Amino acid sequence: MKQDSIAALLDKYYEGNTTLAEEAWLREYFTQEQELPEHLRKHAVQFNGLAQQQEILLDESITDDWLLAKIEKPEQQQKGKQLFMPLASGAKVWRVAASILLLLGVFWAGFYFAKQQTVSQENEMAALRQDVKDLKEALATPENSYSASERIQLVSQEFDKAPDDAVVDALISTMNHDTNVNVRLAACEALYQFKENRKVREAFIQALKQQSDPLMQITLIDMLVNMKEKRAVQPLQELAEKKNLLPIVKDKAAQGVGILI
């Protein structure tokens, strides 16, 4: 075939209008060992690369075809003609590679986020355990080791919504036995955060029977009434009938009984 005919066929090939037979002829022409004119050598490089690419795609056809079938619908091809092979094959390979990279990116992002969340939760738990340890140690030491204001700060700190039993026990002990009424009141307020806890509600009822300071008595009455704790009715009645008790406390107790009954 003359060089002019080859040039015309190449133009037709790049426009995507060649037949399968014409493309096969071009591949065979440019891949055979022969001395080509200088203006045709650049085309030989392309067709040699295409031949190598087709061999690689043939070896990987099982994997690629299976993955492509999962990712996209087969495209309809023109009968008797084939689109420009480097463009079509390259597009498919790039789509497969992009899909794989996207899946890997999503997987890596999810793994990284889960790992960071786990580390954050572990750090929060470690800090909470340290806070609990410090509180228990502080409240277990003699009172003269900490001033009243320092003890108030200890029991007034923010606690987790589901506190450690040891924290609850320490706060209950402080509410009942600290020598400073302001510290006892602060412990009482801290425990009220956990008013749904049955142990805390029972502690308030028992404290009402033990506390003699009017401020503590009034605070406990208000809390028990607000919690609608009907088990407090009897100790409230006893408090309302108690002799040598401030009238304001007796009136408060009587009002509480009237609300809870």
Automatic annotation (TrEMBL):
Membrane in keyword set: yes
Database matches in InterPro entries: ARM-like (IPR011989), ARM-type_fold (IPR016024)
Keyword Protein biosynthesis annotated: no
Residue stretches spanning the membrane: 93-114
Alphabetic keyword roster: Membrane, Transmembrane, Transmembrane helix
Endpoints of the signal sequence: none
UniProt name for this protein: HEAT repeat domain-containing protein
Lineage: Bacteria, Pseudomonadati, Bacteroidota, Cytophagia, Cytophagales
